[in-house]
Amino acid sequence: MSRYNELFSSIKEFYISTYDQRGIALPLVLMLLIVLSILGTAAWTSSQSSLKQSSLLETNLKCKYLARSAVDATKEAWTARWIEDPNSVPVNQTFYNKYDETAKKFVSATEGDYNSGDYVIKTVLTYQDGICTITSTAKIDTKTATVKAVSEKLTGTDVASTADPWYKRYDYNVSLNIWVPIIGTIEIKLPQWSEWSIMPGTISQTITDDKGMEYNATYHETEGKVVIQTGGSQLFANGTVLEDLKKKTGQTLLGLTSQTIDSFIFIFDMIRYRNNVHGLINALGDNAPFKYSVTGLQAKRIDFECPVNLYWNSSVMPNYIDGWIRDGLSLLGLENLGYFPNPHSLVVSAEVINFNGDLTIGNSAFGNLTLSLPPGGGIPGDEVYRAVAKQNTARNPADRVNLDLIHKDAKYGVVRFGGKVKVEYDTSSANNASLVNGKIFFFCPPDGKALSIGTEPTTFSEINERFGLNITVGPTVEDTRFQTLINKGYLIPASQNDMQNYRNVVFHYE
């Protein structure tokens, strides 16, 4: 081939090669442009969608925050008014507010503003059957959000006349079995007598500890405030001693003897065992009722507007002694003649507990008083800290409370000992009634359990683990006498205002 032909062929091949490459690149470029266009369109669409979603979410959140703010403000104002005077609170009210973005505050509005404007909130408040309900709906553009809060029950509950009464004036009756020659045994029913008694609850459980000791535990609970009043008569925590005995034997206490001719001897034995209930129970042998009983009372606030006697049981021996005679016997120290020490513990579970009259309790295993808080209830420790710190500024230096005793992360209740407190058969200075008489305390159940008051180590150790009825009873500290509880910070001195200020109203959001 000549060089001309070779050169021509080279040039021809170059052009053909270049033309072929350009033919392949062009479709690739076009395809790339199409892909980029699709991706760009998708990205733009996505960004617009996200922008719309973000805008929508922001509007919804604004509506929700506005509604929640209206509910919070309403419940705070309503609660403050309820604490001041429960009879003055509004019971049915609808009102409107608008958030002024310029002034950054809420202003009054009308129904017309709500129907036509933005940032307007409609709030409906109702108070019925002791429960306050607050519902707020906020409106921005076409979006709305609703927040609803419902209070706990706040009004008092009549627990004396319900199907399951907490307490009532109860009739007691016993009989004597007397053996008469030829005739045989004659049953003599003694006249009934009546006493105000805390009744066992319908919720009950029998517990046996590792030592074979039996506990009959019953429980009452309600919402709101409970007022217990007897017209000035003593309220006894008789437990179930006589009732359980009747169920177990079919007989009354004075009829239980191995030989009926010994009935009067048995009565003498009972009197001899009056201050030794362990001996009395042993004398009854297999006919003895439950060894000990526990009654729990739970509400938000419990007021005892009467004398409370936890130590003495008035259901065993007939009580025909009129009150004025007992008043005379009290001068001789015999005001409890005929009563027996009570193997019973009363658990009072409430945020505010008011013993407005005299209170009689016991040490060791008889007539115990235990304080507790309802599940989820209690005053935050940091609030107690601030209240006591403020009170310290008005106290004498010797009376100021050591703030280090207050646990800020714990929950507290308020208890008032308005009358005289007496601990039977305990003369120790650590249980001197002057330490608590007429005083108010913040009480702190250790470890969220329960707080025994004024007793030596309590008997109810097993109930901590076995009594599954929302309360816990048992030895929470080794020594629970008044002075020890004050020294350890389980009882923190409070003021009269705390009985009123800490009637917090608890709302939950739906």
Which features does this protein show?
alpha/beta, 510 residues, 29% strand, 7-stranded mixed β-sheet, 10 helices
SSE class: alpha/beta
Portion in strands: 25-35%
Distance between the termini: 98 Å
Overall pLDDT metric: 76
Query: Could you give a short account of the major beta sheet?
Result: 7 strands, mixed
Q: What ranges have pLDDT less than 50 throughout 5 or more consecutive residues?
A: 254-279, 457-477
Estimated radius of gyration: 38 Å
Number of helices: 10
* DSSP summary, beta strand count: 29
What coarse outline follows from CA principal-axis ratios?
elongated
The level of helicity is 25-40%
Describe this structure in words.
- There is one protein chain.
- Strands 12, 15, 20, 23, 24, 26 and 28 form a 7-stranded mixed β-sheet that branches.
- The chain is α/β, with parallel strands linked by helices and 510 residues long.
- A hairpin with a 2-residue loop joins β3 and β4 (131-140).
- It has helices at 3-84, 111-116, 241-249, 263-272, 277-284, 323-330, 381-392, 463-466, 482-488, 496-501, and strands at 92-100, 105-109, 120-128, 131-140, 143-151, 167-172, 175-180, 184-189, 193-198, 203-208, 214-221, 225-228, 235-236, 292-298, 301-304, 308-309, 312-313, 340-341, 344-349, 352-355, 359-362, 368-372, 379-380, 411-417, 421-424, 439-443, 451-453, 491-493, 507-509.
- It has 10 helices and 29 strands.
